[in-house]
Design brief:
six-stranded mixed β-sheet, 5 helices, 8 strands
Length: 196
């Protein structure tokens, strides 16, 4: 199953998602659960991987007032949502993306799953929206596993309005995988390297 994250897919069968309002569905779940359990509605976070990362970005951009923060792993933003981007408040975001991702190209482009904006272009748009310092602090995290042929460069944009910090963990050499995941030769060929 897929979320309707705003991309227009050319993959046969995925066009059925284009008319579905998954954003309303997600908030209906939160509101329904909130009727039975005490939920701090100011502390609702979203985390998504791949299609879920696109969906988390969409929710944050369209409903920033209901989002405390998001973590978007190996995903970006659709061209449509990037062009209409206008969140009503800053949202803290953690991006984790591999530079050798074949499914969601780090540098963006047109794929069978839709038109994808480059990760750093999306990140910079959030940096401007959150009124962060334009120059990030950059850290090179320790390369604890040289055999995985990848390393992580962390960008931290601080000094943001409402402390809505933006971070990017740029997995240099990483593929369409989440750091620390199990890796096999098959996944390496299909999805790229996994940072360990």
């Amino acid at each position: 199953a897929n979320w309707n994250d705003g991309r227009i897919s050319t993959i046969e069968g995925l066009e059925i998602y284009e008319g579905i309002d998954d954003v309303a569905f997600i908030f209906t779940i939160i509101d329904t659960v909130g009727k039975s359990y005490r939920i701090d509605k100011k502390a609702v976070f979203f985390q998504g991987t791949s299609n879920g990362a696109f969906m988390s970005q969409r929710i944050a951009a369209e409903h920033a007032d209901r989002v405390a923060g998001i973590a978007a792993f190996i995903g970006s933003m659709s061209r449509h949502h990037f062009n209409s981007f206008n969140p009503d408040r800053p949202v803290p975001i953690l991006f984790i993306n591999g530079t050798e991702d074949k499914a969601v190209p780090y540098g963006g482009g047109t794929t069978a799953a839709g038109d994808i904006v480059p990760v750093e272009k999306v990140m910079k748009k959030w940096v401007v929206r959150n009124d962060c310092r334009r120059r990030p602090r950059i850290d090179h995290l320790p390369d604890i596993n040289k055999k995985d042929h990848s390393r992580i460069k962390r960008h931290i944009f601080s000094g943001c309005r409402n402390n809505a910090e933006i971070q990017l963990l740029k997995v240099i050499g990483g593929g369409h995988t989440t750091p620390g995941d199990w890796e096999s030769k098959i996944t390496e060929v299909l999805m790229g390297k996994t940072n360990q």
